[in-house]
Amino acid sequence: ECGKTVVPITKIVGGVQASAGEWPWQGLFLKISALGARIPICGATLISQKWVLTAAHCTVGYRSYLLLILFLLRLQLDGFKTSLRLILFITGYNVTSLENDISLIKLAGQVVYNDYVIPSCLPSLETTRADVYVGQLCFITGWGITASMDLFFCRTIYDATVPVISNSECAQWLQGQDILSTQLCAGYQAGGVGSCQGDSGGPLVCSDNSGKFYLQGVTSWRAGCGEPDNPGVYTKVSEYVGWIEDRMANFTG
To answer: Is 101 a catalytic residue?
Structure first.
């Protein structure tokens, strides 16, 4: 069942190491260098057995050089549980405005679900039950750096809770930066918690009353890493659900 974890999520505020099975839809993209080295670059979210979502800026220029890893708690090159090559990117990214910072990617193989590999749910077009709202505490996850001056990814996946804020408040914090209707913001005005370099493309998930987690945001950008008045900006997945479902249903390649 999408959005359900076998490990109870009990954390209140984050910046802590995750446990195996807590975020079974979290993926990691590796860039394969000319010498065959595997370099982590971005997160991703599993949404079905054959499809994942990530940020478009993570895939620009990398069509033939990305490998997706699933069920990975720690960055150990000999510890991958599932690795799949990618065969298709679909996106309408605008590099100038940062609009449509979302890529829908088809896998070359099919994921086998288990307790540690489960897709996140998508927001529904038919109901508002899974809508995200201002003030809601949601989770961000990834292996990204934990401070602006860090040079390396974390060796273990981290998670944190962040509150959703309104786009108008987000723009105010960011001193007038335009926030599009296809984006949402989350973070604390005081800073201290948030996404950073390497977390791009990863999920912002929010749970409903039943305990299911829905993919509400794709990590897009922020001006720094947890500084005050510097919320994270996420591609708002609910604005793209129709597009996502149409592409998945009608793609014949």
So the answer is: yes
> From residue 19, how far is each of 24, 28, 191 by CA, in Å?
10, 16, 24
- What average pLDDT score do residues 223-243 get? 86
Alpha-carbon distance of 153 to 143, in angstroms, equals: 6
Note whether residue 143 is domain-resident. yes
Whether residue 106 is found in the same domain as residue 170:
no
Q: Is 120 one of the annotated active-site residues of the chain? A: no
Q: Would you call 200 a catalytic residue per the annotation?
A: yes
- pLDDT tens column, 7-18: 777 654 456 677
Residue in 200, 207, 220, 238 annotated catalytic: 200
Helices (H) and strands (E) in the chain, counts: 3, 13
The total number of structural domains that make up the chain:
2
If residue 167 lies in a helix (H) or strand (E), which one and from where to where?
Answer: helix 167-173
Task: Give CA–CA dist 179/167, Å, rounded.
Answer: 6
Could you give phi then psi for residue 125, rounded to 5 degrees? -80, -20
